[in-house]
């Protein structure tokens, strides 16, 4: 496609309840959305297309170095102008070339992923193909897991988990941090039994000195322990992977297909959480999926409190055959009273994969406007 312009939009959506992790408490989701406009079909018969991308960077750089304002800045100043310039020079931009076109700019993977997602959505609207079809999905719905934030008390946690199980979520992920780990896991197992699929997420809050605490979690038959150590401690993760019987899963550390290959080679993990935003886009996410499949590493689709746009794309990704564990692809009402798209709903513990062209969903104008903080146009 020829990219002729892009809209950058900042939105702020209130969460239905505060979401606490080991790195902080979120009460609103601030997100950057990108809408690219362009034409397909060449100079003779140009057809206008548009596509939406969502940037998963959070308001503050607590989960990773990226954050919303910085993502908007790099999109505005470098990434979008690059695609506009390439288009103006007469070269088509495709989802498959966005990554290499943006390669001169170091890092900023979440911002790049948002732009690639928008180009991909537009491109697929041009061809009429769904994102799921494009990625190679083999399922029409995906099992839905839920990520449960740190609660003020174990009693409160049990109530929240009970509610999600009643909703039909098929897998529970508990956020843990030092001091809120063994006791909540034990309590959840005691109350809800040995059979519920259960896993924990440390968001990098531990060190190797905590290996004993992590080992105590072995008693609870967890599916996995996610990201116990800091992002850049890939090699060190090989230690808990060796000392702890529960499978170690990496999230923050897997920032690219190359990092995934390194983690596998170093035996730093036996499961990988794939988040397209974290790895630079849905194409890189699919490459990691393929790599893991070839190496017998199970993967699952992580979540970043996405709006319906990112949720749609995650559902498509999670429908690939190597996603053998339930992901954090929950219903819209897990986080939002009103989503910006048609809401994703839980149906017998599953989320339907959209079938329409591109993402298969788009924002509902007035709802989107009601959450919008600012918009700007970037043109050649
Ligand atoms: O269901 O979208 C979701 C959230 C899942 O827990 C979740 N995400 O560390 O994986 C994580 C965590 C997260 C949320 C990380 C927000 C960063 C920002």
What is the CATH level 1 assignment of the largest domain? Alpha Beta
- Output the radius of gyration: 20 Å
CATH topology description of the largest domain: TIM Barrel
What string gives the helices and strands in order?
EEEHHHHEEHEHEHEHEHEHHEHEHE
Strand order of the largest sheet: 5-6-7-8-9-10-11
Largest beta-sheet details? 7 strands, parallel
Mean pLDDT across all amino acids: 96
- Can you tell me the CATH architecture of the largest domain? Alpha-Beta Barrel
What ligands does this structure carry? N-succinyl phenylglycine
The CATH homologous superfamily of the largest domain: Enolase-like C-terminal domain
Distance between the termini: 15 Å
Number of domains: 2
Structural class, please? alpha/beta
Pick out the low-confidence regions. Answer: none
Counted by DSSP, the helix tally is 13
What sort of overall outline do the alpha carbons produce when their principal axes are compared?
A: globular
User: What's the β-strand tally?
Assistant: 13
Estimated share of beta-strand residues: 15-25%
